[in-house]
Amino acid sequence: xxxxxxxxxxxxxxxxxxxxxxxxxxxxxxxxxxxxxxxxxxxxxxxxxxxxxxxxxxxxxxxxxxxxxxxxxxxxxxxxxxxxxxxxxxxxxxxxxxxxxxxxxxxxxxxxxxxx
Length: 116
Prior knowledge:
mainly alpha, two-stranded antiparallel ribbon, 2 strands
């Protein structure tokens, strides 16, 4: 961020110096529109228009990448949640549930019980 600010300041100072040194009046025609003004104004306007066109060309890719990054973050959050759940399952002590058993009947009880 600081680097960008420094670059912008340097370019601004160079633009002002350029404008002050190129005050020659020229006339330009563009699709029947005739304009008169200093050379620096036309050059700086052309540079500005080029920057705007460049930014407009980049906007769709920036939006697309932001959407992709958002999807990836959601996927990562889901995976992290799943990982925490699996770690919790691993660290929980597993106590086996007691198996139901039939009552133990001794041989002497079998003989004494009436059969149906």
